[in-house]
């Protein structure tokens, strides 16, 4: 019987470069590769069981997201954000998330509210188990559902694109920050349910600034 845990990515049936991209992104966010670490195509090809072509395509995509830096003659490495870049990114994302929450409160609907309540409960269950992988997925779902309720496709496209660019900045650094995230999610949802657009905007904006503050605090240690 085959041990599926050791199957290489090249043996999976999926658009290969997207599988490779997601795997490298996950490894970066999980600290397998640290900011500044080189991402050598040959080594990645060997480790993941694929040719260099999907590796190269994946690295280009991650470069467009801002997670990877590609330099002539040096190749790819995990991006290193300057403090100035990080602050600029945080300011823009805070504005986008605040507007998203404001519109969600103004255009709320019961079906999406019920879905968000369910996500929030699943998040609490995952917190009890300290299941960080599940929490990461649920965090994405929470923000996606808020975007659905905001009913602004232009804002959704901008926000989703910007979330990709700020992945490194807003990856929770420890379990306490993850707990704080979900407490803040609950506060945002309560404001949305109440139809308090101003409060939802304020809480979502502060949510981003809190995550940025945690990033800088971790960086200084």
From TrEMBL:
<dbReference type="Pfam" id="PF07729">
    <property type="entry name" value="FCD"/>
</dbReference>
<keyword id="KW-0804">Transcription</keyword>
<dbReference type="InterPro" id="IPR036388">
    <property type="entry name" value="WH-like_DNA-bd_sf"/>
</dbReference>
<feature type="domain" description="HTH gntR-type">
    <location>
        <begin position="14"/>
        <end position="81"/>
    </location>
</feature>
<keyword id="KW-0238">DNA-binding</keyword>
<dbReference type="InterPro" id="IPR011711">
    <property type="entry name" value="GntR_C"/>
</dbReference>
<dbReference type="InterPro" id="IPR036390">
    <property type="entry name" value="WH_DNA-bd_sf"/>
</dbReference>
<dbReference type="GO" id="GO:0003677">
    <property type="term" value="F:DNA binding"/>
</dbReference>
<dbReference type="Pfam" id="PF00392">
    <property type="entry name" value="GntR"/>
</dbReference>
<dbReference type="InterPro" id="IPR000524">
    <property type="entry name" value="Tscrpt_reg_HTH_GntR"/>
</dbReference>
<protein>
    <submittedName>
        <fullName>GntR family transcriptional regulator</fullName>
    </submittedName>
</protein>
<dbReference type="GO" id="GO:0003700">
    <property type="term" value="F:DNA-binding transcription factor activity"/>
</dbReference>
<keyword id="KW-0805">Transcription regulation</keyword>
<dbReference type="InterPro" id="IPR008920">
    <property type="entry name" value="TF_FadR/GntR_C"/>
</dbReference>
